[in-house]
Specification:
With about 200 residues, the protein is α+β, with helices and mostly antiparallel strands. The chain has three domains: about 60 residues, Nucleic acid-binding proteins (OB fold (Dihydrolipoamide Acetyltransferase, E2P), Beta Barrel); about 70 residues, DNA polymerase, domain 1 (Orthogonal Bundle), CATH 1.10.150.20; about 60 residues, Helicase, Ruva Protein, domain 3 (Orthogonal Bundle). Helix content is about 45%, strand content about 20%. The protein contains ten helices and five strands; from the N terminus they run E-E-E-H-E-E-H-H-H-H-H-H-H-H-H.
Length: about 200
């Protein structure tokens, strides 16, 4: 499994981009949520990835954040939802926006996503209700995200394997204007400092 790639962005033509990693050009497909944040061609870029193996092809998908990849992987577990539909979801709304649609049973907004009809939207509402971040524990349910960045950081840290209570503590009192990546980095620094202090 290829977990991430770090290299130089060569080209970007939605939904495909090419990344030069040590002289090897990797073609990846990515959602628009990632494309909106890509640098110019020729600039360094690091993406987390997910490899889908089919009988006729191996397709590598790239994501700017762990939260995007975590939701993509969750969507693939839903019956009748494939990689194209999962990309469509991430291209049509933010990670937290999607979770909010599930919480509010917002069928209309889900059906506005390209490739999502009523049958698929109904299935997403049914099967995702038990896969929401708050379903992982009472601490997550009580987590009051102050911003989209904090909500995405919360989801990413859960995807990394931290328990809901740990994530709430890791993000507590962080500056609400930080980006998702900055919040994740600072939260991980806190954990590292605590572990070093325990030695």
């Amino acid at each position: 499994m290829i977990g991430f790639l770090r290299g130089t962005l060569i080209s970007k033509r939605p939904p495909t981009l090419t990344l030069d990693v040590g002289g090897v050009g990797y073609e990846l497909e990515a959602p628009m949520s990632t494309f909106y944040r890509l640098p110019d061609a020729g600039q360094p870029l690091s993406l987390v990835t997910h490899l889908v193996v089919r009988e006729d092809a191996h397709v590598l998908f790239g994501f700017f954040t762990e939260a995007e990849r975590a939701l993509f992987r969750t969507l693939l577990k839903i019956s009748s939802v494939g990689p194209r539909t999962a990309l469509g979801v991430l291209s049509g709304m933010s990670v937290e926006g999607f979770y909010q649609c599930i919480r509010e049973k917002d069928l209309v907004s889900l059906m506005k996503i390209p490739g999502v009809g009523q049958k698929t939207a109904d299935r997403l509402l049914l099967e995702m209700k038990d896969r929401l971040p708050e379903s992982l524990g009472k601490d997550a349910a009580a987590f009051p995200a102050r911003s989209k960045s904090e909500g995405e950081a919360h989801g990413a840290l859960l995807a990394l394997g931290y328990k809901p209570g740990e994530v709430v503590r890791m993000l507590k009192d962080l500056d609400g204007v930080l980006s998702t990546e900055e919040m994740i980095r600072e939260a991980l620094r806190r954990v590292h400092r605590e572990r070093v202090g325990e030695r």
